[in-house]
Write the structure tokens for this entry.
Amino acid sequence: MELEVRELNEKDYIESLKLSMYAFQYKVPEENVPSRIEMLKRHTVIGAWEDNSLCAKLHIIPFHIHMKDKQWKMGGIAGVATYPEYRRKGYVKRLIINALERMRQQEQIVSLLHPFDINFYRKFGWEIFTENKEILLEKKDLKFLDYQPGSIKRFNKENHHSDIEAVYAQYSKNHPGMLVRDLPWWNNNIYDDSQIAVYYNQNDEATGYILYEVKNKKMDVQEFLGLNKEARYGLWNFICQHDSMVDTVKLLTSNHELLPYILHQPKVKMEVTPYFMARVVDAWQCLIKYPFNNISKKVFLHLEDEYAPWNNGTYLIDGGEVKVYKDKQGANCVNPPKRGVRLDINSLTALLFGYKRPSELFELGYLLGDESEIEVLEELFPQAKPYFYDFF
């Protein structure tokens, strides 16, 4: 039968919900169905149909992410699901290609997703851009650091304070990819049963916070954001103040977090795991918005993108200006250009988010070109510490 790919309307939302419940093995209580339907109105849901039956679907959720001092429009991919009898027929591939075109039209210049299989999404241009570090501590590890003169104030969903959002926004400037959160997102997606402890310095300025929950002699720290040394010490000491209440502490943070280094006993159990993936949807827009270092040298990038062909071409980065030559051949052409660096969309994504350095990708064979041009890229791309605390 001929496959139809189209956006779902409100009359189709129940079918989308049925597919999600089947594929992800959960049940939505009848009284919660209206709120789920209301949530779907914010999404763009694309479905693959055979004979008016929904076979597979994909959600695009509109977000913004922090990229240094700017905010970029981002399309979040979620709810990708197919009934078993329709799998391995290329339906999700059709949906992904359609989604890329729609995100470009909506000026969502990058896309993020949480992968069920990293290799599957890598084929379509998404690449890892962040890693979680989970630190597991026992009561004996809770040793106070040098005394800090500031104070801690605790908040929850009912008395949420703008100081928390200010700390988050400041932290996000140094961690590309962080989600731009509005108040409903804080209330509906962050707090749950947790609370937030904010560290204030002697000038009563908020300089860090932790999102945490204490239950059954366990402390679960879901977010740890310290803007400076004092805040980091103060937040750690607050965690240590729970030594009579907990036997263990689980602390989730960025792989770049320096906290373990300053502990009295850094030899604690830590696990680093790849988390979210990102994809450049519109290379031209990303490159002209990107905060490159201001250097006098120039370099050509020859880009190849199989599933978003509008990105194919040659890009000249020169003195902060970016020019594109669409008539040029991409990275995988038969007769490669003599000048410039050849790369695919995955590698460009890793570079723009700061997940990998040019020299690292060159060593792995993902960047092709003269070593002197790789050195120019090293100067061009600022150091970055990408991270993503959220989930969708």
Notes: The chain has three domains: 4-108, 133-273, 282-380. The chain has a mean pLDDT of 96.
